[in-house]
Amino acid sequence: MGIIPYQMAQILDMNPFHRKLILAVLILQGMLLCQASAQLSLNPLNFFTKKKPYENVIPTAEDQETALQHYQEGKAAIDAGKLSRAVRSFRKITKEYPHTDVAPNAFSRLGEIYRDTRRWEKSFNTFQEIIERYPEYEGFEETLARQFEIADALMEGARGKFLRVFPGFKNFDKAQEFMEQVYANAPYGKTAPLALMNLARIAQRQDDEDAAIDALDRLVNNHPESVLAPDAHLKLAGIYASLVKGNMYDQGATLEAINYYEDFLILFPESHLVGEAEKSLAKMREIYAQSKLKTADFYFIYRKNQRAAINFYNETITVAPNSDAANIAKTKIKAINENRKPSGSRRKVFGP
Known about the structure:
This protein is 68% helix and 1% strand. The protein has helices at 5-13, 16-39, 61-79, 83-96, 103-116, 120-133, 140-155, 172-185, 192-205, 209-222, 229-242, 252-267, 274-301, 306-319, 324-337; strands spanning 161-162, 166-167. Strands 1-2 form a two-stranded antiparallel sheet. The N and C termini lie far apart (84 Å). Residues 36-54 and 162-169 have low confidence and may be disordered.
C-alpha cells in the first residue's frame, strides 16, 4: 500500500488542491489499515513481546521456581525503595509466567505500586486482570475493595500525574467508568450497593439525572435490604421532585416523586428521615392537586363542561385532601351545586 519515490515526486508536482486530496486519501488508507491490523492482532509491537498463554496451562516446576525467584526479587526491590526495579520483576511474571501460582500476587503488587504512585488507571486495570484471570484467587474480595478505593478516590477528585511528574486533571468520567466496572465485577457483592450510590452521586455532579435515576433504581430493586435503600428511595424522590417545573406542566415527574416518597414511608416507617419525607410528600401532592385544580378551571371556563370540571375538582380533593387546592375545589363544587358563580371564575353556571 506504500508509494515509491517517483510516485511521491508526481504527487509533489501536482497543484496544491490535488496534492492535499491525494495525501488525505493515503492517510485514510493508513488509518483503516492500522485498524484492521489491530483487529487481526497484527500489531508489530506484539512481535517483540513474549506472552505465554495462561488459560488451562499447567506450569512446570522450573516455571514455578523462576516465577517465585522474580517475585522475591520484586519484594526485595520494594523494601529497598527501588520501585522501578520491582515493577520490572513483577511484570516479568505477569508477561511470561501468568499461569504460575505466584502470578496473582505479582499482579496485586503491581497494582499497589501503580496506586501508590497515583497511576490510577493503570492500577485499576492491573487489578482487573486478577478479576478476569483468577476468579478463584484467595485475595479476590480484597482486589475488589482496592478497585473500589481507586474509583472512590477519583470520585472525590484525586488526580493522577501528567507525564508522571505534573498533577493531572480531575476525571469524573473515569470514576464513573471504574465504579460501573466495580459493580459489574460483583453485582451482589459487599461493595455493590455503595458502588451504585456513588454512581448516582457522580451522575448528579455532572447534571446527568437519567444516569442518577438508573443507578438508584438498580439499588432499590436489586438491593432492597441494603442500609442504603432508604437513602436511595429519598434521593430518587428528590431527583424527580427537582424535575417538576410547576403545576402548569406535565406531572409525570410529580407522580414519580409522590410514589417514591410513599414507598419510603411504607417501607421505612422507623427511619429518622420520615419527617423530611412527609414534608416533601405534602409539597408534591400540593403541586399535583394544583395541577388538577387548573385543569378543572380550564374545563369550566373555556370548555364550558361543568361535569368534567366537577370531576377534576373532586380529583383535586382526593389527591391532597388537606391542601389549599382541595379547599378551593370544595368551595367551587359547592358554588356550582348551588347554581352560583364560583369564586375566581369569569362565567356563571349554566347547567351540566
